[in-house]
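Open question from group meeting: does this chain pack into something compact, or does most of it stay loose? Before anyone orders reagents, we agreed to write out a predicted structure and look at it together. Recording both the input and the output here so the notebook holds the full record.
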Amino acid sequence: MKHSLDIGVLIPEFPGQTHSFFWREIEALKRYHGHQVQIISTRLPPQKVHHEWVGKAEATYLYPIAPGALILAVVTLVAALPRLLAQADVRKLLRQLRNGALLLMAAHLLRLCRRDGIDHLHVHSCANAALVAALCQRMGGPRYSLVLHGPLGDYGPEQPFKWRRAAFVFVITEKLRQEMLQVLPEAADKMHVVPMGVDTDRFAPTPIPAPAPPPFLWFSCARLNRIKGFETLLEALAALQETHPDLPCHVTIAGEDESGGEG
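Structure tokens returned:
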């Protein structure tokens, strides 16, 4: 009986600057759970990143599609059309011409999954990559799961379709789960809070106690983007200073905007 899975992890524009925790998760799946994991990405990122793990992170890309693979994807799509058109929500989706390219990408993904024996697709996005995985499953591809990293409005339309057939969905905070229950209450049973992990073998508190109580220190490392919640951090600092005026505290923020610090 097979216990390990062949997992495809679908990540948009991999490797990206903020993808380190994806890589840690993939390594843990292989090291601690014995799964075979293949990274699949929509396309290469627009900018090169320099994390130490990038050289080891091999990925298969859905775009651009080589001419031979494109022909085979079209053949796969044509064969799947009767199955797709028999589903009312898929027919509604296909009325929008902008989904045509994603449908072809889904057919290409289906071929890759069949070729490599992928049992499950785990999608680190609820944007277009989620729609590609959902369409792939509707064509007869493997089951899939999603990860929601922020407010749903940042991830585009067709969310009910993306979530409807997902085996499960991870959201990274309880607050986000509560927000999602208001939007998609029908997905309550498949929604799980899974905070982003930390490698405790590498990042662990020192066993030596500090010689004196230090000031209250907050450190935040993230992109300078509104979804990272810096406003909440500063509001919390103001509240702390109001309730504990004698407590020395300091906030350090490390991060760049999407323009490399020039925005």
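Observations to bring back to the group:
The first helix runs from residue 20 to 33.
Helices lie at 20-33, 67-85, 88-94, 100-116, 128-138, 159-164, 174-183, 230-243.
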